[in-house]
Amino acid sequence: MTTINTKVLPGFMELKPNEQIAFNKMLDxxxxxxxxxxxxxxxxxxxxxxxxxxxxxxGDTEKQIYTFSxxxxxxxxxxxxxxxxxxxxxxxENTLVFPFKRYxxxxxxxxxRPQAGRFREFYQCDIDVLDxxxxxxxxxxxxxxxIASLFRRLGFENFTIRINNRKVLNGIFEEYSxxxxxxxxxxxxxxxxxxxxxxIVEELEDLGLDDKQIEDIQNIAELNKLxxxxxxxxxxxxxxxxxxxxxxxxxxxxxxxxxKDLGVGEKNFAIDLTVARGLxxxxxxxxxTRLNDYPEIGSVCSGGRYDDLASYYTKNKYPGVGISIGLTxxxxxxxxxxxxxxxxxxxxxxxxxxxxxxxxxAYSLAEYLRxxxxxxxxxxxxxxxxxxxxxxxxxxxxxxxxxxxxxVENNNYSVKDMKKGEQVKxxxxxxxxxxx
Amino acid sequence: MTTINTKVLPGFMELKPNEQIAFNKMLDxxxxxxxxxxxxxxxxxxxxxxxxxxxxxxGDTEKQIYTFSxxxxxxxxxxxxxxxxxxxxxxxENTLVFPFKRYxxxxxxxxxRPQAGRFREFYQCDIDVLDxxxxxxxxxxxxxxxIASLFRRLGFENFTIRINNRKVLNGIFEEYSxxxxxxxxxxxxxxxxxxxxxxIVEELEDLGLDDKQIEDIQNIAELNKLxxxxxxxxxxxxxxxxxxxxxxxxxxxxxxxxxKDLGVGEKNFAIDLTVARGLxxxxxxxxxTRLNDYPEIGSVCSGGRYDDLASYYTKNKYPGVGISIGLTxxxxxxxxxxxxxxxxxxxxxxxxxxxxxxxxxAYSLAEYLRxxxxxxxxxxxxxxxxxxxxxxxxxxxxxxxxxxxxxVENNNYSVKDMKKGEQVKxxxxxxxxxxx
Lengths: 436, 436
Hints:
The structure is a homodimer.
Chain A: H1 17-36, E1 40-41, E2 47-49, H2 50-54, H3 60-64, E3 67-70, E4 73-77, H4 82-92, E5 100-109, E6 121-130, H5 138-153, E7 159-165, H6 166-175, H7 182-189, H8 197-206, H9 211-223, H10 228-238, H11 243-261, E8 269-271, E9 285-291, E10 302-306, E11 320-326, H12 327-336, E12 350-354, H13 360-371, E13 376-379, H14 385-394, E14 399-403, H15 405-410, E15 413-417, E16 422-426, H16 428-435
Parallel strand pairs in A: 1-5, 7-8, 12-13, 12-14
Antiparallel strand pairs in A: 2-4, 3-4, 5-6, 6-11, 7-9, 9-10, 10-11, 14-15, 15-16
């Protein structure tokens, strides 16, 4: 017989139906919140011209991209939703309405070495706002408001959106005469919380920083402990010559004020000067989000502002700000901690067991229930009652309705609440109320 | 500057946000109906082991499959959702609850020569019911009930689900001693409505059929004109020795009766003995669905029953029945005929224009509206009023709420209905009602 391997490829997630239901619930909630804030849906193909996908990427990312040729065409599977957004905006720039608030939810592909918590195929759920030439700072503040609303709806209270501004970091480097090493230092700052102090010091020494400079860099992390007003005051003290630092502080202050105005509780956001974000296209505000009860998961939602998103595809300038949730990884991490409820095995709320000759009684009841948006299945009497009840039981279906000769005669239905074990005889019109 | 081509690849569909909203509405409705009938969601990866995808395919299909290697792994992009379902059932057969009613909605890939109405990336929306060893015929009848319910919810009344049974066709061939040519004849019968009579006759002659046999085959199409009872009676007259024909007629009769019991109106379904469906794995009931006002679109929803779906991946036998909607093509066909309403440009129902210093009034109103599931955007006074109103107008946003000094003072809001041109001053609590 067959020796075909039916397991999914390593690094690919595949769920059982009950897990899929839980996953879809999160996906729906994310979409719902994105739409509540007025983001418009965009879906781009999974396959793009290779030149589009490879325009910006390089190094590690490029090695991970799935590329292949068919006929004369070099194609690549998208590795994120931002590159396709940039192409999309360039292609339709004359018809899109700006500011362009778009959301995109879809799978992306990275041929990474598979390891726990890393996926080769995974969902990204992105929002971005783009405008032509310049983009109002209020959108930098709206992004955390969306995130806060979203995580609350997903059932989390104890999360922190950490906010920083690249101009602040770059400006500090300028003040400290470290500008030429800023990319390398940013990379080290990104790890400042994850690695022991001596490793950080060593890495900074390797860059050729002297003791004073190393102390200055480490002091950046210390500033986080201050409250927000104090922190901004300290930053203004550091600022002497760097205009980029001044700009960064001004922006950060405005954004933080607006985030408060937007009603994001202070326990759900914080300035964090160590948030740098690896991607070098961020130029202003940057975000990371942690679930404080599960710090080891790392950031579950990150992003930032870029001054010129579509520069590889159009001459026009489109600044943007946005974030991305890697839902496949987030789901996997929450699931492995027992934080995902997978009790619901099927959408079905009601199973009708017809034990009379004429199935029409059952079918017309089913139609009535479905018209009232109640998910309903019908079992005809050809199957054994035992098999039918086992099905309802194994799938945790909350209600079973029996139709026997007596029910048909009296024009009513026996409705059994499977959780309570309670059974009632009621008229059709009463069923909806009883079930809801 | 750049010379990167920002157009999507030929054969790939990419929509503007308003088109995407219309597309998603159809997608949501399909999912909703599938769930109302108790189908459970399954999502499989887009990339599979090449051996999985290539196990069954051959000929034209195989040439269309996107395959490539990464490291030691030969991978292929799925070309349908049925092959992954077969693999899925084989992989999880010990934990799945049967009958397994599953729906899958996702994109599939076929590297066909691009032409009008053909896509290389397209959505399939599938339902299938599988059971172990044997599957009740009532599911063959439920499938058309789902389709009928779905197309009605999509706004169509004038459609016909055409039903046939492969055993009937194969049985007739047996009676007519044409069994050895059945595959070829099936292929010709599939085209009997599309091609002129003389072409059909010629093709049957090429197969070596004599005049009597050719007449017999053509008479099969003639039977369609009879009403259902007459038709079944005629089939029983043809049946003399073929047990497979007897089985087919019995099945067809049962399924048709149940479809009626299920409440599918007689104008929405018909027996059609010319429906054969190309795929050779169908073994019983087969379906096609036409929109009668647009016959040139062809079948918009097809499928059938297969005796043994997962035979390439497991020794156990899983008969199944299901159908698939090619939504990308359907949307494209409807759109090109002006049948898709794309007036909705954004999910946003309300734009709040804040013209006071403190944006908090606007933000807290927005939060209140979103909590009541009303999609809301806020414009702060930093943008010009003109730009803001232009945005609301271009995106067809139905309501604009103004907050000025007077409104703050009197604790009310000026709500403008953009369609009616009417403006009222009301309290926060009255807004939900006014808008709904």
